[in-house]
Amino acid sequence: MKPFFIKLFKFSVFAVTAILCLYALTTALYIYKLNTIKLGDNINTLILGDSQTQTAVNDSIFTNSINYSHNSEHYLITYNVLKLVVSNNPQIRNVVLGFSFHNTSTFYDRCLFNEGNKAEGISRMLCSRYFTMLDNSNKLMLIENNLPVVLKTLRPGVLDMMESLVYNYSNYQDYRFIGRYYPGIKRILNDSVVKESILWHFYTDSTGIEMENFSDLQSEYLKKIISFCKERNIKVYLLNTPVHQDYYKQIPQEFISRYYSYIKDLEENYNVTLLDYPDCKFPDEYFGDGNHLNRLGASVFTPMVMSRIE
Amino acid sequence: MLFNSIEFAIFLPIVFTLYWFVANKNYRWQNFLIVISSFVFYGWWDWRFLFLMIFSAGIDFLAGLKIEQTGNQKKKKAFLFLSIFTNLGILGVFKYFNFFIDNFVRAFSFLGYQINPVSLEVILPVGISFYTFQALSYTIDVYKNRLPAVKEPVAYFAYISFFPQLVAGPIERATNLLPQFYKARRFDYDNAVNGLRQILWGLFKKIVIADNCSIYANEIFSNYRHYSGSTLLLGSFFFAFQIYCDFSGYSDIAIGSARLFGFSLMRNFAYPYFSRDIAEFWRRWHISLSTWFRDYVYIPLGGTKVRRHIQIRNILIVFLISGFWHGASWTFIAWGLLNALYFLPLLIFGKHRSNINTAAEGKLLPSPVEFIQISLTFLLTSIAWIFFRSKSLSDSFAYISGIFSKSLFTVPEVFPKSFIAIIMAFVLVEWLQRDKQHALHVESLKIPRLAVWGFYLILILIIFLYGGTQQQFIYFQF
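Predict the joint structure of the above. Result:
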């Protein structure tokens, strides 16, 4: 019996040590790869944000730009992405950052920390894709607030890292945590789809009774992004992308008024420019659903944004 | 409790420690611990069905005693029938009642009568087909004087509920397993290490191969109308690997776990996909069930000592019952029938025992003839699995006709290269070890320990990294 336990113990020590070493090595190589990626010298505009900018701005039309928007991205994550990309690419002069009405709601906080209704799927996706590239304080924040999901997503996270090393990725967009322009959402624009998005963005439950709050965390990281850019002389444009009128009309007024009073504060104190298009009355055929443009919509909208960038 | 769950990873070491360090003074204490831990294991899924198992096992225990005690042959037979009817009755109610009612109603509707059916809203108790057959083996063996009746209820309940093989076998014969509960068990280092290896291989089969195959098989079988013939054929191969690795993986974990407690369970799979004909396949697939049917159905019906046409009838009966054992659906019956049709030509031409030994015995590679035989047998088996996997007979036929279309010769739409590479590596390891009890079975190691540990570590890493979404074992439903 004793030799059995001794051997089992020895093997366990060997296995745990080897796994930890492999994990550390993989992570180190992964971070190294990420930190050595260079964008083309001509790229001076970064487009960041969530699925709104992901679908609205086509970087193949927008010259000298690259779209790294990723669906459901919290500003905490965008801040880390921005730091990573800009630290290796000092030629960046402009950041176009998605800032729609729902970006002020606590919806993305709940997704990030897996709190309450509808959150787990997105939480898992975010943790598995982004955890390794976050700075240590943000990693700790996730561990403190969302440990079960962090543990559950370790495996896909490691797989992603290994895949990126095996295939020797040399472009940010090959990494799963970095988004890219996504040409439209294959959904039909109808009342239920619009209603679903409204409930998703502004209410904590599916009945539409309890409204989301204004997110302090989103605000904190939005300001961090702006400050980070300011320190590096990067101009920040906040982009409120077009939404369908049916969607716009159902946004709780409280969010709209709070949004504009908040933006006023940002414009005054942080010198940002708002590119404000939610009410631009695009025809139905430009939309994938109530709040995302499709390929056609993006082809019309992208030049509009481009013309506003100095 | 699933073998591939965190709960089991905690449960097994606890029971193992208690078994060898606390209850090791007396085998009766160990039996008692086995009963308690088996009840916890089973009750973890649904504690209410524990009572069902205790009830049916209790009847069998008493029936066994009475069969032995009475000298009157008629009474012996009556107690045997009591046991058989209790077991098959419970099985019939929980598993087959709705099937018979549905078909009864359909038959009457066909004749123009409308009947309001009564159906039962019951959950099928996990493992009922397994422990029922194991219990039947006991009373039949006592009746046939192959075995004395058990006097100790704890030993009997330990035999029926032994947690490693309680819910999906191997279906043990009382003559093999019961006597092991009467002996003092000594910890055997080599046996325990071998058990751990077998558990590791079983987990690899289940978590890496079966659970990942299920992703592709489910996708293809659910949308078979939209896929090409080549994809459908690949889908049937995915399911063939899924069911093999799911079930044999479970058996490996069961047998390996039993080894840790000093028990030897019967072998359940012997590399069936390396069979050269269907008869060999059935000697290598789900051996505990095949031999159960052989011993308790086929031989009592006359076995090989009857005329050829009676043998053919008996084979048909056994395969049909075997199909029906798997589930109350016409698809399982069709699967059994198709296997019987595969098997009968071999029986008729006296070729059903042509391939008794292992394929390419003593050689590294099979001969071209063996290779063709193995491939053809695998293909036939995979076609039969389509009936097993489909929701209805019409789906099965539509799926098969979808395979044999022009698009059979196109590139499959679903072709996960890296996963297929893992399957190929898995097949290679099994092929190299095909004369062993399991793929990680090594008698004497001449390889450095570090290399062996490295290999285990790679397996553990692959299990961790490539583990699909946790799926229940397919055979839990039977």
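Chain B touches chain A at residues 20, 187, 189, 192-193, 196, 453, 456-457, 460-461, 464-467 (CB under 8 Å).
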